[in-house]
Design goal:
The structure holds 2 protein chains of 2 kinds. Chain A is an alpha/beta fold. Chain A contains 11 helices and 12 strands. Chain A folds into 2 domains: about 160 residues, Nucleotidyltransferase, domain 5; about 160 residues, Nucleotidyltransferase, domain 5 (2-Layer Sandwich). In chain A, helix 2 packs parallel to helix 3, helix 5 runs parallel beside helix 7 and helix 7 runs antiparallel to helix 8. The two termini of chain A are about 20 Å apart. By secondary structure, chain B is of the alpha+beta class. Chain B is about 50% helix and about 20% strand. The chains are: A alpha/beta, B alpha+beta. Chains A and B meet through strand 8, strand 9, helix 8 and helix 9 of A and helix 1, helix 3 and helix 5 of B. The complex binds adenosine-5'-diphosphate (ADP) and magnesium ion (MG).
């Protein structure tokens, strides 16, 4: 708690993100991102193999951290906390980052801050865009959720019943031999699609499911061009997400929408969401394209919020949480 | 005439005539072929299942007229449960959903916004656009999972509301059948948690 008193506007936090494919570190203070450095893991073939990704993170983490600190041109003793993604994510990746973070926190003699990765996306998004109390659509590889704050916590209003939208796109693109990550490639192909092919559209209240869509789309590969299938796949998946978002805006009664997560980079998805926001007089917020995906700065910033509220993570309680959900975290700063 | 923007549709209330028109305007974000198909399917489904549900003993509005993209139905005087739900109402809702499932129907969007507490002390179920005939435990489980998720996100006393619902649901759907659905609900929740 001593740290709490000494904190100033210049308190600097180091954040490390490595829940899946991107290993990324950053230094932030309350006003700005000071420096960042990242080393994404790219599978040689197929999708992300958790153990390979963890291996890659392990061999790069030293470089990523030291380059981040070097770029910032600060003294080590200016760093007042080490924040890391404690979950949700891939077990082996989480453990690699956690081990390095614990060591660093001991070395620098500063508090360790175990950050919920999903909460970090939201807080960072609010920080960058100025959204106050938005409904949040969080769409990434493994996660797809509709979230809003109510009474000290981020509540889940809707989510996927099976796989995340990013994983669905990756499965689809891998079937056609496209290299990981498939998202940008499918987005490009979809632009050249002409004919819409009817595919399963599964919405249950504010929940939704993608596995049937993947199966149906890949089974039509003989009769349809890849461009048409990519187009139809995106149209279906994103229309489903837009529909549940609209429903949640209505049920949760919000007049702001914040889009976060890697799939948020997709311009077609943004366009659809903008349409419903216009119609409902809802303000649409989305961070700059390079900040919708996983990054160290979001972890550092959320770590800073936690430190300010005394939410430090003792080493003996810093085991990773691969299934950590956003509604398990108390949010005292909202 | 009062205009309500629903979660999906646009509703025109004519309280004098005692009529409601529920119109599904085209969604600009969806490609036309997909949107046309969805609007038509949901409108047809809703009109048909609202009537079937009533035959199964579930209070629903009477259907007065049907077009490609709109339904004219009876106006239910009352208010949605959204802002006034209590344990007693939730138990009643459980009884109604029990009847619905017994009648081989899954609602598809069970929330307190789709339940109207009428002035004659009855709970009406509305908004059947995502409904279907399905007797699988999975469909019933998802139905109830959607409701429980909504209770959890929206109300601090969600545990009590949930237990009241279960009490009513068991009454009309049968203890054993209800238990197997509730077991599936837990499984669906676990699926969401562990990926
Ligand atoms: N038959 C009805 N009688 C009275 N009010 C109704 C009726 N149907 C709909 N409403 C009102 O309109 C709102 C939206 O209707 P609903 O069928 O749920 O459409 P949506 O699919 O857009 O949510 C309801 O929450 C309720 O307030
Ligand atoms: Mg409704």
């Amino acid at each position: 708690m001593g740290n709490l008193l000494k904190m100033t506007k210049d308190t600097i936090i180091l954040g490390i993100e490595g829940t899946a494919w991107n290993l990324s570190a950053a230094l932030v203070d309350e006003r700005k991102i000071i420096s960042e450095y990242e080393k994404p893991y790219l599978p040689k073939e197929g999708g992300i193999h958790p153990r390979d990704a963890a291996q890659s993170h392990a061999s790069n983490i030293k470089e990523v951290i030291s380059k981040t600190i070097k770029k910032a041109e600060i003294d080590l003793d200016e760093i007042k906390g080490v924040a890391f993604s404690i979950g949700p994510g891939m077990g082996p990746c989480l453990r690699t980052v956690a081990t390095a973070s614990r060591a660093l926190s001991l070395l620098l003699k500063v508090p360790l801050l175990g950050v919920n990765h999903c909460v970090a996306h939201i807080e960072f998004g609010r920080w960058l865009t100025g959204a106050k109390n938005p409904l949040v659509l969080y769409v990434s590889g493994a996660n797809s959720q509709v979230i809003a704050y109510r009474d000290k916590k981020y509540r889940i209003y809707g989510e996927t019943l099976d796989i995340g939208v990013g994983n669905a796109i990756d499965k689809f693109s891998r079937f056609f031999g496209l290299k990981h990550p498939g998202g940008p490639k499918v987005e490009e192909l979809a632009k050249r699609g002409k004919e819409y092919v009817r595919l399963p559209y599964v919405v249950k209240g504010m929940d939704f499911s993608f596995s049937g869509l993947v199966t149906a789309a890949t089974s039509k590969s003989k009769e349809n061009s890849l461009e048409d299938l990519s187009f139809s796949f995106q149209e279906n998946a994103f229309s489903m997400l837009t529909e549940v978002t609209e429903r949640a805006l209505s049920y949760a009664r919000r007049d702001e929408l914040l889009l976060v997560g890697g799939v948020g980079a997709n311009l077609r998805l943004r366009e659809m969401l903008e349409t419903i926001c216009e119609e409902r007089e809802v303000k649409f917020f989305v961070p700059d394209r390079r900040y919708v995906g996983d990054n160290g700065a979001m972890i550092a910033y959320t770590g800073l919020l936690m430190l300010k509220n005394g939410m430090v993570t003792p080493i003996e309680r810093s085991s990773v949480k691969p299934n950590f959900r956003p509604d398990e975290v108390e949010i005292p700063w909202f | 005439m009062v205009l309500i923007r629903g979660a999906e549709a646009t509703i025109y209330l004519d309280k004098n005539l005692g009529e409601v028109i529920k119109k599904r305007l085209p969604k600009r974000y969806r490609v036309k072929t997909l949107d046309d198909a969805i609007v038509e399917e949901r409108t047809k489904t809703e009109a048909k299942i609202i009537s079937d549900a009533r035959r199964a003993g579930v209070p629903t509005p009477i259907i007065l007229d049907l077009k490609d993209d709109e339904i004219k139905m009876e106006f239910i005087k009352g208010e949605t449960l959204r802002d006034m739900v209590d344990e007693q109402m939730m138990e009643k809702a459980g009884e109604i959903v029990g009847k619905l499932h017994r009648g081989k129907i899954a609602h598809g969007d069970l929330t307190t916004s789709n339940m109207i507490y009428s002035s004659e002390d009855r709970i009406y179920l509305i908004d059947f656009g995502l409904s279907r005939y399905d007797t699988e435990t999975e469909a019933r489980g998802v139905d109830i999972h959607v409701l429980f998720q909504m209770l959890k996100s929206t109300y601090n006393d969600h545990e009590e509301l949930k237990n009241s619902f279960i009490k009513g649901y068991k009454k009309n759907f049968g203890e054993d059948e209800a238990n197997s659905v509730l077991k599936r609900v837990e499984e669906i929740e676990r699926r969401g948690r562990y990926k």
